[in-house]
Amino acid sequence: MTATQPAIVNTLTTGRLPKWAPWALLAGSWVVMSAVFALMSAGGGGDFNIALAIFLGTVLFDVAIFVIAYLVEGARQAKNRLVTSLVATAFIIALLPLISLIFTVLSEGLHRFDLQFFTSSMRNVVGEGGGALHAITGTLLITGMATLISVPVGLLTAIYLVEYGRGPLARAITFFVDVMTGIPSIVAGLFAFAFFALVLQDPGIRFGFGGSVALSLLMIPVVVRSSEEMLKIVPNELREASYALGVPKWLTILKVVIPTSIAGIATGVTLAIARVIGETAPLLIISGFTASMNYDLFSDRMMTIPVFVYTQYANPGSDVQAYLDRAWAGALTLILIVMALNLIARLIARIFSPKLGR
């Protein structure tokens, strides 16, 4: 009688987890740890720590996916899934500050995120009520003027460096653009204040256009660098084909090079705006702050959202909570404006990017 041969198990054809299993397991781990932390915060009276809950939930997911994959798929696939989950864990850890920031701003800022906040200013308001209409208007006006100054200058500089620039002048421009990239924002504000104080002979000058000039100093190097990189990746074959048809260089740049790279240029401009829209120090120096509406960039002080948040948080009145609520609502408004700018940039890139047919 022959002995029974042991069954041969092919580890490559063993059971497989469905594709949705890792995602479901990750979401379940986050829900479990969030519930645990919610119960602990409710029992102990502390605050809910979303970052720690997501981190420990991700660690629980790493352990769970390895164990389940080992039982269902075998040791080989379990090791593969463990390494993949560790890579995902590193990515989630990098996102934890952003997650914590968004959660905190939403939880604190929604208390005053109402109609009154967007339809009234802080004029004659010393306690509850009031809004940030004057700050929102000032931010849009100052940032818009800074964009009008920075985009033409930055884009033309990038075109010169890529299409025309050769020799010492191009190297000097590149060097100074690199230097401007590292300028502290408060230095830009001091420069704008000193410049206009000397030119206009007014040592106490405060006005919105000065803030636009200060922000443009911070925007121009970002626009130059991003636009330069986008122009460089335009294939030379496109330029040569245009030249072969007898099209002059300036028209080739206008009709071929810029439309081909417009998507990246729009993204770079949006990043430049996002870089400066939250600046506080230069605007506090040259634009000042006020509780009233001001639509004139060239006259009187003008409030902006970052300065509004700073003043509400740093100088609270007798009703401290009302000031803090307005500060958090202002921070949430600023984040939403940056998100809207990113969406607009993507829309511009989709509309104006070259259409490639089959």
CA distance, first residue to last residue: 70 Å
Specify the CATH homologous superfamily of the largest domain: MetI-like
CATH structural architecture of the largest domain: Orthogonal Bundle
* CATH domain fold name of the largest domain: MetI-like fold
One letter per element, helices H and strands E, the order comes to HHHHHHHHHHHHH
Tally of contiguous helical segments: 13
Judged by helices, strands and strand pairing, the structural class is mainly alpha
Shape: flat
| Portion of residues within helices | over 70%
Provide the number of structural domains: 2
The overall average pLDDT, rounded, is 87
Short description:
This protein is mainly alpha-helical.
Short descriptors:
MetI-like fold, about 350 residues, mainly alpha, flat, about 70% helix
Question: What does this entry look like structurally?
Answer:
- The chain is mostly helical.
- It has 2 domains: 13-109, no CATH class; 133-352, MetI-like (MetI-like fold), CATH 1.10.3720.10.
- It has 13 helices and no strands.
- It has helices at residues 21-44, 50-72, 75-109, 115-119, 133-164, 168-181, 185-199, 208-232, 236-244, 249-276, 281-286, 305-314, 320-352.
- α6 crosses α8 (208-232), α7 (185-199) packs across α8 (208-232) and α8 (208-232) packs across α10 (249-276).
- The longest helix is centred in the first third of the chain and has 35 residues, at 75-109.
- The model has no long low-confidence stretch (mean pLDDT 87).
